[in-house]
Each structure stands twice: as structure tokens, then as C-alpha cells.
Amino acid sequence: MLRTRTSLSTWSQERSMKWLVLLGLVAFSECIVKIPLTRVQIMRKTRSEKNMLNSFLEEHDYRLYQTSSPGSNITIFPLRNIKNMIYMGNITIGTPPQKFQVLFDTGSSNLWVPSMFCTSQFCSSHVLFRHRESSTYRPTNKTFSINYVSGRMKGIVARDTVRIGDLVSTDQQFGLSIEISRNQEVPFDGVLGLGYPKFSFSGVIPIFDNLKNQGAISEPIFAFYLSKGNPEGSVVMFGGVDTSYYRGTLNWVPLIKAGRWCVRMDRISMNRRIVACNAGCEAILDTGTSLITGPRRLVDNILRFLRAKPRGSEHYVSCSAVNTLPSIDFTINGINYPVPAQAYAIKGSDGNCYITFKPIPVNTPREIWVLGDVFLRQYFSVYDRGNDRIGLAQA
Q: What pLDDT is attached to residue 205?
């Protein structure tokens, strides 16, 4: 599970890093850039499974390509899900382009990748940006520091051309990491944040804002479809909404406050019994988080209701019991969004099914829940910067 956060004081900037838009009902296909994702099953941390993951990456060379839908200019690029349902894809930086695999993360605001200056163990197994090989590279005098629950990162800010498929952001500021105290086995290289500029480090303008300001996208909107079972098919799209990715009505929810992808949630319930968020709470929709996280006391209550057994920091149930477990309903803006047991209980390699609810690793003054990929696989999500709102519909 991955979560980035800056060294600012708010909790949303201090969450743990996870490793492993207004075009509602009409698809303006000529303006939409779609980036498909590929899913890889969960692999638990045994030596044989680490080798299996490495073999998979070697056998499935990940190449950037594009295809267009017949009769339109919608462009599609492959992304993949690696380990614990993390959705990531290729971008390029520099001239000529240097390719990186990054996490597309609504929970952070900056783009960063490892640099050739990095001497940390993490960087030894990842693609490094080689600034001397790019004719469009420009240094700055800015530095940055990002604190994680389980580590930290320091680096410098640089400028160069960044491409997400056909979308090009020229003179884009981004982070080059010099020191990363994280697990070097994580298969992606960096993070591409899709949050608001408010949480950007060192005053850097996020790439989505630059794309908007430079006229690369017609509408300040992006959206995610995360596949439930197929290795391929997941998509992040920029500049509009393709209605073929959801069913029914796209329900719009205003943000609590412009600046982060956070909405008011009414309650969390099981079998019509409220189990959390009794008086309303905050819900952050975060593509960079694999799980659903909340206050420890309330998560523990849910685990007890499910009769989940502890194993280390995880909780599990017998997979034979999953079909008897209730859906968990998240009520947002008066509408119920159920997450069935088959979605929140994930089978591990040991034959048990692990519950994908975890306590938030820091204390918060208010009740806050983070709805990560477990929730977002069920619901197509649209992020409308122009109107400061999020749209949700059945995926």
C-alpha cells in the first residue's frame, strides 16, 4: 500500500506512501486521452513469490504504445497493476524520452522519479533519470523533502518535458529523488500526483495544472475505471468522460473544500446497522491507496463484526465464509455505495481471505476514511477540477 505526503502539517500530507472530469453524460471522444491499466494478482511476501513477480516483469516487457478507437481520436496507452492492486503506467521525461513506470495517485500532487544522484538502495533496482542525456533538462535551485510513515525522501526539483501518451507538458517541474528510505523491491519507479496544487511541494505546479494551462486538455477533468478481475482493461482518462465505462447515473458529490479530493460521507453500515461514521465523516478518494483505511477503533469494530482473525498486522477469514459476509455500505450524499465481501476479502497465497480494512497509521482530529482501490474498483470515479466535485457511478 502506498501513500505519499509532504512535510507540511496537515494529515493528508502526512499519510503513508503506498508502494506495491465535468463531462458527465456525454463522451467528448475527440478530446479524451485514455490510459489503460493492467492488473496483476496479489502476491504475498515469500521468496518464491518475489521471484515470481520478478520473472513476470522480465517476461512481460512493458512497452509504451498507442491505439485509437475507430472513428475517433481517443488514444489508449497501457498501464498495469502491480502487487496489492496498485495501478500504474508509463510516462516519459526528457528529450529524447526516458521511460518511467509511475503510480497515478489522486492522493498526492507531485511527479517524482529517481535520479542518477540517488545512492539509496531503492534506486539501485529502478530506472534513474539521466539528466545529461536530455537536451530539454533544466535545473532549479529548489529542494524538497517528503515524509512517509515508514520512511522519507529528499531530492531536488528539475524542469523538463513530460509526456503521458500524446499529452505533453513542456518545462514541467518535477522531483528527482536523491535519498529514499523505502523498500527497493517496489516495481514502479515514481509517483504522478493528480491532487490540487495546495499540497504540492516547493510551490511546484502539478502536471495536470500545466496540461490544463498549456491547452493540452479541453476540460479540467480526469476519471478512473479500475477493473475488478481482468489483468487488463483499467483506464485513466483525461479531458472528458467516456460513458461506456459506467452504468446508470453519474452522481456528483461536492468537495468539502476545494483543495483535496475529500467529500462528506453520511455513514458506513452493514446489514442496515451503522458501524462507523455515525454522525457523518470525511472520505478521501485515493487511487494511490490499495485498501480502505479509517480510525483504528472503528476499523477494529468492523473486523470484529466480520469475525476476522489477526495474523500479524493483517486480519483474515476463511475463504469458505466469504459468501456469508455482508456487503459494507458507504453512504455518500444520500446514495449507498455497497462494497461486497468478494471485493473487500482478498484471497492470499496461504488460502485465507484477508480483509482489506486497515487503521490509518496516524491520529486525526476528525473521523477520516480513505477509500482506496477496494472501493474504486466498484465505482467509476470522475474528478472535476472545474467544479470542485467528484462523480461516482457503478463501474
A: 97
Architecture of domain 35-41+73-217: Beta Barrel (2.40)
> 221, 336, 196: which is closest to 268 by C-alpha?
336
What CATH class is the domain 245-394? mainly beta
Strand partners, 167: 164
CA dist., res. 288 & res. 43, Å (int) = 18
Spatial distance between the Cα atoms of 340 and 327, rounded to a whole number of angstroms: 4
Count CB neighbours of 223 within 10 A.
27
Contact by Cβ (8 Å): 113, 101: no
Phi and psi at residue 319, in whole multiples of 5°?
-65, -25
Which of 322, 363, 377 is closest to 345 using CA atoms? 322
pLDDT along the chain (395 residues), means of 10: 37 38 31 64 39 36 34 44 66 97 92 94 91 97 82 91 94 95 73 94 95 92 85 83 93 96 98 96 94 96 96 94 97 98 92 94 89 96 97 97
Please say whether the beta carbons of 278 and 295 come within 8 A: no
| Cell numbers 527497493: residue | 184
The span from the CA of 28 to the CA of 12, in Å, is 33
CATH 2.40.70.10 domain span(s) along the chain? 35-41+73-217, 245-394
**So which residues are the catalytic ones?**
105, 286
